[in-house]
Amino acid sequence: MTDDRQAMLATPPRPALPARRAMIIYALCFAAALVEGYDLQSAGVVAPKFVPDFDLSPTELGWVFSASTIGLFFGAAIGGTISDRLGRPLVLITSILLFGLFSILTALAPDTGWFLAARFLTGLGLGGAMPNLIALAAEMGPAETRVTRVAMITAGMPFGASLAGFIAWMGSADLDWRTIFWIGGTVPLLLGVALMVYLPSGSRAGSAAGAAGTGAAAGQASGRNILFALAGEGRAVATLLLWAAFFFTLIVLYLIFNWLPSLLVGRGFTLSDATLGAMICTLGGGIGAIVLGRLVTRFGWRKIMFIAYLGLGVAIYLMATVVAHVPAMLITAFLIGLLGAGAQYVLYALSPTLYPDAVRGTGVGWGIAVGRLGSIIGPMIAAMVLAAGHGPSSAMLAMLPFVALGFLAAFGLNTRVAQGPA
To answer: Number of structural domains, the chain?
Structure first.
């Protein structure tokens, strides 16, 4: 191994943070995840209101939804990678301030072009924040509670998504769609200032606890060093399995999150009940992240993830073929969120354990970026199934092979997690 690569893996000692300050940082990181989830859902919940304002065609609306997701892809890869050089706190705070600023610019959009550009740039900020939230949470405490800690913080994302839906539902016909984006922009700006005050400063991956860098090579972010971060020291198989697990699981989740209301209406439920089912599903995701994260820490990865993916497949099958009454639909929707989104957020929590501190941002960021490709493809699959003349039940059942593939990739990570630099 070259001296540069040895420097990349060097991990300086990290002094423990005072308990009170650590709790404040955990709360701020949870809040950052909350506003991320809020923004990711914001365009969807107010689409019926801004579509008439901009006279958007279905194709243009599709680009609106895709713009932030494309930004997320690039933001996660870039933000995770440069954090190994510049430090997690700096990149996280910058990303949060950026997505707050561009969310406000979304609220000010006078035309479609402005709106699309603002959504793309908001996605860049969102993408840059996410891998750094995960890496910081992983590095701010003992290894034995790492999975639970990261899962609990990232649970803020589905809770934030539910919050956006709740605000839109409460506002009903009287709510101006721009208000959703004003909220989604102002809160991150305030949060960024709070993070400036409380997050420890530092120059590299371990900066969450005030660690200093060990040289310029510690986080160089291009060319062979990115390849080394992802595949060096025997990490190639683990990286590919992580990418596959993210990709296939997010195909399922984003098909559900984008299409569940329409699919439920197609099965005979009212729009009001279908909307409630979608809200319950995202709420279940937040609870699932916390519950499954704690269960993995207590009972082990293999058993809990087997139960989660098996239960997800069963719940989707029941929703597609059996469930016909509102209470049963709501319970099933909750289980889909609990098990599906819960499993994905546990994967997020496990991803930092596969990479050493100095390349953790790169590893997690590229994993999230690849997973975002799945979030783009998932909704397209449902559209193709329906366009081919099949019904909503067929669109739901089309998810089952991807549940199986996601499980196989996640299950394959079991031994790699045990071998990783946790």
So the answer is: 1
Q: Give the type of residue at 62.
A: G
Beta carbons of 180 and 382 less than 8 angstroms apart: no
Enter the tokens of residue 58. 């279905």
Looking at residue 138, which CATH number applies to its domain? 1.20.1250.20
In which domain, by residue range, is 326 found? 3-419
DSSP for 56-119 reads --HHHHHHHHHHHHHHHHHHHHHHHHHHHHH-HHHHHHHHHHHHHHHHHHHHT--SHHHHHHHH
| Helix axes of 58-86 and 88-107: crossing angle, nearest 10 degrees | 160
For residues 273 and 234, give the distance between their C-alpha atoms in angstroms, rounded to a whole number: 49
- Give residue for tokens 């991807």: 402
pLDDT in tens, the chain (422 residues): 444 444 444 444 455 566 777 788 888 888 988 988 888 778 777 777 788 888 877 667 777 777 888 888 899 989 988 988 888 889 999 999 999 999 999 999 999 889 999 999 999 998 899 888 888 888 877 777 777 888 888 888 888 888 887 787 776 667 788 988 999 999 999 999 999 888 876 534 444 333 333 333 344 445 567 888 888 888 899 999 999 999 999 999 888 877 777 788 888 888 778 878 888 888 898 899 889 988 888 888 788 899 999 999 999 999 888 878 889 999 999 999 999 988 998 898 888 888 888 888 889 999 999 988 888 888 778 778 877 888 888 888 899 999 999 999 998 886 555 444 44
CA distances from 397 to 8, 392, 394 (A): 45, 9, 5
Report CA torsion sign: 352, 354, 356, 360.
negative
DSSP state of 337: I
